[in-house]
Specification:
The protein has about 130 residues and is mainly α. It is built from seven helices and no strands. The longest helix is centred in the last third of the chain and has 18 residues. The protein is about 70% helix and about 0% strand. Helix 2 crosses helix 7 and helix 4 runs antiparallel to helix 7.
Length: about 130
């Protein structure tokens, strides 16, 4: 029987991005852990953001495309409760070893995590039109 960590790694798939001898530990973590999790959880992130936007009186759906980009960035940076919820979705997919690595440098890794997520959501802003 496979361990939970083995199943998680199998579900997520391999690294995304280039890793070489010059890669920092943060860059390695980003490409071996964060990027695969964000890709794996993408549909959930889209639905979570849609739900958030609806609960915020749907203002997001009336904005121009440029303003939607700013909205996504501002919400994730400023709404601590929402940001912590998003972080939980990612951290829940860590293996124990990854979690131990994460807690050693959580501040910088959180910044990377949120920046990657912001860019991912911005690149899919068209998907948010469906709710309007």
């Amino acid at each position: 029987m496979k361990t939970k960590d083995e199943v998680i790694l199998e579900l997520r798939g391999g690294s995304i991005g280039i890793i070489n001898d010059n890669s920092s530990s943060e860059e390695r973590f980003q490409n071996t852990t964060l990027r695969p999790i964000l890709k794996f959880q993408n549909d959930l992130f889209v639905e979570v953001f849609k739900n958030y936007a609806i609960k915020q009186k749907g203002v997001f759906f009336t904005l121009s495309p440029e303003k939607k980009m700013s909205y996504i960035e501002n919400v994730i940076q400023r709404d601590i409760k929402f940001r912590n919820s998003l972080k939980g979705i990612v951290i829940g997919m860590f293996t124990l070893d990854e979690y131990h690595d994460y807690i050693l440098n959580s501040s910088n890794l959180n910044k990377r995590m949120m920046n990657l997520l912001i860019e991912r959501l911005k690149s899919q802003v068209i998907l948010f039109e469906e709710v309007a």
